[in-house]
Amino acid sequence: MIFDPTGKENCLMTDSKVIYRYLHGGKGEVTLMSPRSHKAHSYKFLKPANERDFPEDTIFVYVLHEGHKMYLGMLAGSEFRRTAKSTFGEDTEAVKGARYIVKMANRQDVVDARMMELYHSGRCCYCGRPLESAKYLSYGIGKRCMQYYNIQLLKEPWDGN
Prior knowledge:
Largest sheet: 7 strands, antiparallel
Helix content: 25-40%
Strand order of the largest sheet: 1-7-2-3-4-5-6
Oligomer: single chain
Structural class: alpha+beta
Number of strands: 7
Strand content: 25-35%
């Protein structure tokens, strides 16, 4: 897919802590793009509808292809794993991309290397509403959800861990 990073709804994510929180919000939609080729894959990170049947930090990972979401695997805490229900092989671009996104969420040095760029869709990662304010757009979470979930804006710099 050819991706336009300049679209008004797309927001480049450059902080691993923001990426981590965005992926775990339960309604995150991101696009991983190669800055050289502009080739991209889009993903959804969604909480299970029946959350009680899964551990608290479980997020289902889907790749978006031609308007359809296709199941890739699960994100539990800071680990992505492809499951038996995934129709994608371990060495496919979609699975490698999901693993790279999770690595970006856990390591600031991977984000800073800029081998790949990660954009969120301009929607709140908790409720899915469009983000209007530039301040909240940069964090990927809306004002209402930030207040509801009692989330503080990240102010401390990355400490290398």
